[in-house]
Amino acid sequence: MKNQIKTQGRQIIATAMVLALFGLAGGLLVGVIYEATAEQVAENQRRAMLANLNQLLQTDRYDNDLLASQITLPADERLGQKQASPAYIARLHDEVTAVIFSVIAPDGYSGAIKLLVCINADGTLNGVRVVQHRETPGLGDLIETARSKWIFSFDGKSLDNPDAKGWKVKRDGGVFDQFTGATITPRAVVKAVHQCLLYFDRNKKQWQVASSK
Ligand SMILES: Cc1cc2nc3c(=O)[nH]c(=O)nc-3n(C[C@H](O)[C@H](O)[C@H](O)COP(=O)(O)O)c2cc1C
Questions:
Q1: What is the mean predicted confidence (pLDDT) over 130-154?
Q2: Using CA atoms, how far apart are residues 101 and 154, in angstroms rounded to an integer?
Q3: Closest residue (by CA) to atom 18 of ligand 1?
Q4: Which atom of ligand 1 is nearest to the CA of 184?
Q5: Residue 185 and residue 39: Cα distance in Å, rounded?
């Protein structure tokens, strides 16, 4: 009986040791794979961001390294950002040609809509793109370029064109189309882009400082 208990005890210890070894080996493997892929993941993210930026700004509009031009802006309500956010400064022959902001429209139908907003040095919009959202397929997702041309309606617009009253969807007396049965999403995006234009305008000096670097 004593021997049987001893044998069982040894078996339990051996099993526990084998399990512990497997756990250790698994942990090590995950660590090694993470190390091996971290660089690739960072490079993929870099490329994806550059592709997003290049959708907004033609490559002949800048000759600097756009990703390296990133500055960090403090949290600001006009950008919809509760935390510091990045902006990218495009330059051609050392002159600022455009600034690309990361903007959040907080009041989409299903929450935050993340945008990139590209404003030319003269204050006109070069373009707007949605980079992340949870709006309803077939209704709110018409803000995507793959689903409709609506987002291009910002191209060339500025703080004066239209005036402040026009920076609304048509339903609210502005110039921007809403979608059939879905006004909340476009209303949120129009408001966020307008706020970003105001932010750009109020902080003009900052872009001039950035240009002299
Ligand atoms: C299931 C469901 C999903 C909806 N998704 C959206 C959406 O993604 N974006 C949006 O603006 N409205 C969405 N709506 C409609 C809104 O509730 C709201 O009625 C509409 O935005 C108001 O626009 P309207 O005044 O043109 O009807 C959705 C409604 C339902 C029932």
A1: 97
A2: 15
A3: 182
A4: 11
A5: 36
Model pTM score: 0.83
Same domain for 134 and 76: yes
What pLDDT is attached to residue 211? 43
- The count of structural domains within the chain is 2
What distance in Å separates the CA atoms of residue 159 and residue 127, rounded to the nearest whole number?
14
**38 and 65 co-located in one domain:** no
DSSP state of 167: S
Average pLDDT score over residue span 55-65: 95
Same domain, 200 and 100: yes
Mean pLDDT of 84-95: 95
**Atom 30 (ligand 1): residue with closest C-alpha?**
136
Pocket test for ligand 1, best of 183, 189, 191 (most atoms within 8 A of CB): 183
For the segment 4-10, the average pLDDT, to the nearest whole number, is: 81
| Structural domain for 31, as ranges | 1-56
**Nearest 10 degrees: CA dihedral of 38, 39, 44, 46?**
120
Instruction: Give the amino acid at 69.
Output: S
Q: How far is the CA of 186 from the centre of ligand 1 (A)?
A: 10
Atom of ligand 1 minimally distant from the CA of 185: 11
**Residue 57, both tokens:** 């700004």
pLDDT digits (tens, 9 = 90+) for 183-192: 999 999 999 9
Residue 36 and residue 136 share a domain: no
* Residue 39 clears pLDDT 50, i.e. is over it: yes
**How far apart are the CA of 77 and the centre of ligand 1, in A?**
25
